[in-house]
């Protein structure tokens, strides 16, 4: 059996879980270039290393695509599955133990497919993904309609920003838009000098948000990630910071963020709360729910 096939079996043969066990986490930002893809890839890697089954999907076809970041070549993507030109089994790329890349497309292209028959066949196809514990989605930046569809369909929305004033303004605008569709929003402040700086920036955003948006909003800091030139170098060299440079400060910060996400999922399970799961996620995304 080929390695690709055996690694996919590891996903499909996972104890048949009830539908709805997958937590879908959308990682987004108001402004581009703040580290969304870097954080998505590393958080997914750490969760997988902790033993969760993790899928990572790119809905942001920018410069640093996830396939480039993971140094794999995606021949076909989710659009081919929507067009019935490929199956999920054919497009999914095993990356590491417990970690699979689901090559995406620009969100606009994906959302063109809302026909009920197509969606229903696609959801059947997506069945094998129900065995994932997490689906991490790297969305595009900005408050466009397509990105909002992804955020609405996800269980968790994480807004990433950096200390730059323009990025903070855009992150706030993003939080305001997301607050119309979600009461809970998580934030990561990336490229900070210290955790203290991250907390200060978050407090400023939170104060303005609570004053202008209202108390229904639960805005929480998922964590801050310190800046380190090795992170940018690692992206160029196509290595994951949390795998190859685990002793640098940002790697530790990302570990803490992944742990918080893992703990959150386990708490929800203990409380008996179901995630929405892959089927419902795609139905919501494609306008069928
Ligand atoms: N903590 C950090 N310290 C230093 N550099 C970082 C850090 N996080 C990200 N970077 C660098 O910032 C740049 C932008 O990161 P990335 O491509 O992940 O951003 P993005 O938000 O996904 O961008 P886009 O909107 O273009 O998709 C990259 O060169 C990356 O290596």
Description:
There is one protein chain. The chain is of the alpha/beta class and 289 residues long. The chain has a single domain, classed as 3-Layer(aba) Sandwich (Rossmann fold), CATH 3.40.50.300. Helix 9 links the parallel strand 6 and strand 7. The longest helix has 22 residues. The chain is globular. 45% of the residues are buried. Bound molecules: adenosine-5'-triphosphate. Adenosine-5'-triphosphate binds next to helix 2, strand 7 and helix 11.
Question: Could you give a quick summary of the protein structure above?
Answer:
By secondary structure, the protein is α/β, with parallel strands linked by helices.
Throw out a few tags for this protein.
alpha/beta; binds adenosine-5'-triphosphate; Rossmann fold; 8 strands; eight-stranded mixed β-sheet; globular; 289 residues
Secondary structure elements and their pairing?
Blueprint (H helix, E strand, L loop, with lengths): L2 H10 L10 E7 L6 H14 L4 E5 L7 H4 L8 H5 L5 H4 L1 E4 L2 E4 L4 H4 L5 H10 L8 E8 L3 H9 L2 E6 L3 H14 L5 E9 L2 H19 L4 E9 L2 H8 L4 H4 L4 H22 L6 H9 L4
Parallel strand pairs: 1-5, 1-6, 2-4, 2-5, 6-7, 7-8
Antiparallel strand pairs: 3-4
Helix pairs in contact: 2-13, 7-14, 8-14, 9-10
Bound molecules: adenosine-5'-triphosphate.
